């Protein structure tokens, strides 16, 4: 039976491959396109390291609180429900005055009732060198008091089209009094 199938159908599949997939689908709105038709490119892995500054204090804060959770005994310990919008500088070195590479724009919120576990949703918007204007998008869970927090890189734009990967975040400095934080980000992305 298999032999008959192969001997009859295989030549047909080879001769008319386009007639078999997606029977009934209307192809007018959907086309497969060749990726880089002129250049054969391979996916590469890049590693970036920079420092993310969440500045709450002073006259130029980079964070604004947009949702304050209702006061409630059960949720007050972790701050569950709180949401902040950020436009945080990303610098080459831990010092805020070091070379600016881009900004982390987006928001984070406390999504855990047990600990300060953030849901981070942010774009790294790069503004230097060949990556100027390109972005990476991070969406993940950030339990801020853990030593290393890993979050997925779910996409990108510009030079980072089709990006996927992960970041590892570790706190470099955290000022308990002001809430200002400097976090080291190690970013590993596959892209073209
Ligand atoms: C929690 O609720 C109890 C009873 O409603 C109240 O007496 C207590 O002060 C509250 N604790 C906090 C930290 O708000
Ligand atoms: C980045 O791109 C913007 C807009 O195209 C341009 O104004 C700016 O000078 C560029 N910055 C660098 C450092 O290349």
From TrEMBL:
GO BP of this protein: phenylpropanoid biosynthetic process
Superkingdom, natural source: Eukaryota
Cited function: Dirigent proteins impart stereoselectivity on the phenoxy radical-coupling reaction, yielding optically active lignans from two molecules of coniferyl alcohol in the biosynthesis of lignans, flavonolignans, and alkaloids and thus plays a central role in plant secondary metabolism.
One GO cellular component, as annotated: apoplast
Keywords associated with the record: Apoplast, Secreted, Signal
Location in the cell: Secreted, Extracellular space, Apoplast
This protein's name: Dirigent protein
Family statement: Belongs to the plant dirigent protein family.
Subunit details: Homodimer.
């Amino acid at each position: 039976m298999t032999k008959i199938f192969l001997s009859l159908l295989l030549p047909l599949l080879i001769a008319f491959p386009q007639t078999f997939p997606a029977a009934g689908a209307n192809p007018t709105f959907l086309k497969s396109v060749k990726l880089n038709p002129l250049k054969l490119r391979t996916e590469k892995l890049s590693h970036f390291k920079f420092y993310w500054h969440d500045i709450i204090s002073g006259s130029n804060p980079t964070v604004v609180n947009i949702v304050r959770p209702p006061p409630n005994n059960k949720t007050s310990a972790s701050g569950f429900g709180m949401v902040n919008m950020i436009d945080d500088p990303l610098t080459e070195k831990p010092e805020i005055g070091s070379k600016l590479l881009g900004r982390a724009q987006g928001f984070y919120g406390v999504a855990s009732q047990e600990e300060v576990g953030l849901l981070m949703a942010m774009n790294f918007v790069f503004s230097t060198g060949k990556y100027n204007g390109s972005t990476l998008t991070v969406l993940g869970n950030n339990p801020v008091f853990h030593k290393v927090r890993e979050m997925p890189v779910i996409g990108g734009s510009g030079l980072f089209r089709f990006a996927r990967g992960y970041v590892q975040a570790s706190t470099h400095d955290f000022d308990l009094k002001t809430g200002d934080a400097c976090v080291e980000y190690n970013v590993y992305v596959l892209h073209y």
